[in-house]
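Researcher: I'd like a candidate sequence for this fold, 539 residues long. If you have to choose between options at a position, lean toward the conservative one.
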């Protein structure tokens, strides 16, 4: 008779270094991110455009292109960590690139080449470490103390928002009173501190070695499944996957042709970023579908655990795909909602308004991390226990589905405020607190939950890559924003919006709300069939 293994072991003491690193890094990232749109709108970098809607749209496009990069490069960081260098060294080296990017922003505020190089380096550095810090944190736990992992994942998400709160509150003031060099320089200093704190814990970390060239890794199993032949049967999965690859190559070739010769039917706004993201999406979707059709053919050529692990990853990818509309809503709080807030009236005359602190519409973003820090303990200590007493178990997938729907509701409220503004009314900036509350509640249900979900569902050899694929949902979220922004530049779409009697901004807000509701419904239907896994490391 075996003794059941305890799950109440001690908290790993090295967690403090990881949490401290994350607090400083998040201040660094959100400090620059949350002032990027206001800076671009007023900077000489967009001096070729007149003040107004054109410059606002250009700033939004640059911002969401940057976000796409931030959440695309986790693929590179996850791959390098899993195959070659391990998580610790990959995090450390990408952090140094990250620091160099901040230095470029501070030094080249009036130089487009230097500034955009800085944005690229930050996207590369931030994206490179993004999937690894969370999974590296999870690596410090095993079966003996995994019960404490949920507490740490919640604390991890809480500290992200602790750093984000002060960054969102203070960075716009730094920009307003001290200029871009200081406003972008301070986040750079915090990133250096974050790197130093992470380095301090180097002797205490549990370092799970990289898998190197594992013959039973995810892509090896997929290749075997797609290539395998069965007597008397075709290879439908390979055909589906090849359609995806060919479609992606054709898209990229059409973009290249459109850049050199005139293709009147190719959308003029489909630059490299949009085209490359669409191509990647087609490969992932059709490649994953094709692999699922023939996956059982890999059984016997690879261990059952490896084949089952690939099946689990393919199921996770469907969950991730259905979450992408949430990010199209969430990331626009740093672009669309800031632009809306600039049209509103700051209620300085009201005694309850903290005029000594809140002086800029961009500072309303501080509500998001503040509410996260309040809602996480409220949910864990009050809401979830109350729901369980009522007989409703708030599972991870249920929380995520409801989070998407609640986020859609926030955009209905934002659209109502925009209609108010479009009607010529003076609208207090304080009203934006309502959509911020709803969006943040949705975020806690989706994003904080997904940190735990993604790590627990990923097989051990694929944790870095699966976390990278989770962050890729934000890339596609911003892709939907760029596609929508490109769509409204079409004369037919513009005419249709005009026929509704709404402004373009209001129409798009209601459009994104509807997008979220459809995604929430699809998510709920799929979640009912999803088989949960437990892939924590064995002690």
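Model: Candidate sequence:
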């Amino acid at each position: 008779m075996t003794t059941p293994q305890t799950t109440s072991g001690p908290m790993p003491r090295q967690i403090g270094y990881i949490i401290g690193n994350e607090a400083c890094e998040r201040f660094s990232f959100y400090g620059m991110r949350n002032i990027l749109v206001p800076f671009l709108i007023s900077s000489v970098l967009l001096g070729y455009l007149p003040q107004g809607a054109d410059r606002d749209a250009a700033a939004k496009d640059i911002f969401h292109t940057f976000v796409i990069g931030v959440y695309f490069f986790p693929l590179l960081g996850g791959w390098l960590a899993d195959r070659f260098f391990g998580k610790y060294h990959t995090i450390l080296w990408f952090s140094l690139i990250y620091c160099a990017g901040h230095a470029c922003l501070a030094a080249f505020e009036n130089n487009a080449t230097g500034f955009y190089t800085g944005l690229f380096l930050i996207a590369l550095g931030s994206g490179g470490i993004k999937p690894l810090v969370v999974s590296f944190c999870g690596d410090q736990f095993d079966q003996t103390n995994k019960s404490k992992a949920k507490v740490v994942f919640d604390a991890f998400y809480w500290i992200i928002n602790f750093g984000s709160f002060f960054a969102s509150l203070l960075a716009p003031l730094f920009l307003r009173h001290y200029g871009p060099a200081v406003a972008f320089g301070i986040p750079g200093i915090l990133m250096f501190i974050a790197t130093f704190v992470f380095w301090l814990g180097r002797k205490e970390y549990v370092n799970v070695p990289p898998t190197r060239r594992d013959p039973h890794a995810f892509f090896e199993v997929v290749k075997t499944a797609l290539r395998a032949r069965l007597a008397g049967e075709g290879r439908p999965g390979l055909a589906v996957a090849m359609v995806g690859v060919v479609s992606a190559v054709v898209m990229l070739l059409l973009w290249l042709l459109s850049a050199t010769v005139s293709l009147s039917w190719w959308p003029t706004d489909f630059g490299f970023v949009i085209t490359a993201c669409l191509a990647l999406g087609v490969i992932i979707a059709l490649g994953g579908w094709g692999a699922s059709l023939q996956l059982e053919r890999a059984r016997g050529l690879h261990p059952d655990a490896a084949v089952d692990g690939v099946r689990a990853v393919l199921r996770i990818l469907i969950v991730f795909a259905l979450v992408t509309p949430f990010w199209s809503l969430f990331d626009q709080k740093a672009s669309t909602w800031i632009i809306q807030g600039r049209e509103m009236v700051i209620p300085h005359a009201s005694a309850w308004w903290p005029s000594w602190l809140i002086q800029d519409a961009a500072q309303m973003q501080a509500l998001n991390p503040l509410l996260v820090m309040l809602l996480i303990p409220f949910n864990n200590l009050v809401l979830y226990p109350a729901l369980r007493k009522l007989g409703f178990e708030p599972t991870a997938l249920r929380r995520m589905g409801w989070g998407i729907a609640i986020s859609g509701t926030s955009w209905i409220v934002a659209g109502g405020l925009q209609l108010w503004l479009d009607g010529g009314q003076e609208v207090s900036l304080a009203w934006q607190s309502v959509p911020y509350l709803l969006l943040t509640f949705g975020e806690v249900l989706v994003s904080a939950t997904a940190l735990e979900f993604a790590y627990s569902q990923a097989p051990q050899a694929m944790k870095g890559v699966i976390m990278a694929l989770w962050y890729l949902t934000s890339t596609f979220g911003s892709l939907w924003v760029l596609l929508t922004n490109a769509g409204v530049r079409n004369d037919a779409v513009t005419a249709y919006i005009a026929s509704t009697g709404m402004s373009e901004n209001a129409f798009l807000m209601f459009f994104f709300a509807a997008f979220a509701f459809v995604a929430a419904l699809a998510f709920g239907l799929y979640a009912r069939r999803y088989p949960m896994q437990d892939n924590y490391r064995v002690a």
